[in-house]
Amino acid sequence: MWIALVLFYGICKGIREVGKKEALKTSSTFEVLLIYSAISFLFVLPDFKNAMGLEAKYYGYIGIKSSVIFLAWIFSFIAIKKLPISLYGVLDLSRVLFASFSGLIILHETMNLLQWTGLALVCIGLISLKFSKKKTCESSEKTQKPQTAFVILAFASCALNGISGLLDKILMRQINSSQLQFWYMLFIVLLYTAYSIITKQNIRIVKTLKNPWVWLISILFVISDRALFIANGMEGSRITVMTMLKQSGTLVTILAGKFIYKEESILHKLICAAIIVTGILFGVLFKDEFTI
Description:
This protein is an all-alpha fold. 77% of the residues lie in helices and 0% in strands.
């Protein structure tokens, strides 16, 4: 059952990325972010009784996590709007790189030779993305620099998600999943609301609520996270297998790039993704505590 739940999480994550790209076709980035987070919070609101009873200091810690996610989502939504979905899906695998370095630097975790080999494979796979066949036409050259900026934003989002994952690891030692999910979603809604007011964003609430893709990504976000929480708590669940199954979302985005958006260099991206996933496999097989 826990294997099915984690696989469900990975597939939902891939579908969410496609849903975000579609939602952004008719709504602005901050319209989607605000309404998406608000709807998601409404889905976790019935669980508020289980979220009560936190010590005061943990509200501050969750506030820090929420601020990190606030920025991570802005960067990721901007990047996914402009980048090919198949490329974004592979870039998203880089979060394992940032999770590893944060564990090394902050938690003082250690890595053996095989784990360093795995990390090197992750780097090789990401670097290899740069060497796909480029069009020689002038229009391709003109779009190369702007695309680089969005790739940087995608990496920045992954780095922030790595920090968020590290905070999750620390917080989950003291609080439960209902408390963490409820409060960080509430803080995120407040952050996006405050930002929209301060910057005078034009939020078309009714129009965005009519965007079916916003509802889809909100529902998938809540139920996939809950599925992952349940899987983590099941007896016999293995972090090594779970880490691998989470990467199924990348296959979804690459296939969506091929069959929905008719993107190019799909085989090249699949090879790069395979190299990165092999590196992740090295990491999770040779250290039970390695997490993403």
